[in-house]
Amino acid sequence: MFNMEEKIFGSYRKRLLDQKMPHGKKAVLLAATDLFAKQGYNGTPTTQIAESAGVSQATIFKYFKTKQDLLTTILQPMIEELLPLYRDDFLAELEQYDTLPELIHFLVQDRYRFLTANSEVVMILLNEAFTNETIRTMVYKVFNESLPSFFTLLHQKMMSQVRADLDTTTVIRTIIGQLGFYFIQQQLAPNIPTEPNRDLAIIEGEILRAIQK
């Protein structure tokens, strides 16, 4: 069975920390990522970003023409570079599993690891994809390129073991709904106690009961 601890994701934050760039620019990107994730893009003024980064507003606009440019600079590497890499790695690993319990275990553990490793950028994407046309277009392009191969592989692997009245879309929606709600709960209500190992095992069981023949 897949062991969550064996898979190491390079998070967006680690990627940013490892990049060579002026200290002020990196500080702005890190501060903006944190604040946009917690407060939303529209709820975060550049004055607050500057204060959190320990720089002046002039420094922000030295490196980024506009606040929208700052947001795009944060999200573009995740959408155009990291998401395709994660997708290819994910699909290659998914090929290793055949039984429905193994597949569900891998899907839940792997995607939870991805979500938590990149929680800040994921929350920004969730907030902005519905309201920001530029970001929505970028996300749509990647999803449009990724979903067909994902649907095809899941259909091949899972559907012979799934209830006959369910189609692939419904199965994927069930998995995303269970895992997505848990992740968002952790982000928006961090004071509610969670035990990921136990909780994820429960989620896997609920998904299996809902879809298995």
UniProtKB/TrEMBL annotation:
Q: Which Pfam families match?
A: TetR_N (PF00440)
Task: Give the superkingdom in one word.
Answer: Bacteria
Q: InterPro entries annotated for this entry?
A: Homeodomain-like_sf, HTH-type_Tx_Regulator, HTH_TetR
Q: Where is the HTH tetR-type domain?
A: 22-82
Gene3D superfamilies recorded: Tetracycline Repressor, domain 2
Q: Which residues form a coiled coil?
A: none
Q: Which residues bind DNA?
A: 45-64
Molecular function (GO) terms listed? DNA binding
Q: Which keywords, in A-to-Z order, does the entry hold?
A: DNA-binding
- What is the protein name given in its UniProt record? TetR family transcriptional regulator
**What is the species listed in this Swiss-Prot or TrEMBL entry?**
Lactobacillus selangorensis
Q: What is the lineage of its organism?
A: Bacteria, Bacillati, Bacillota, Bacilli, Lactobacillales
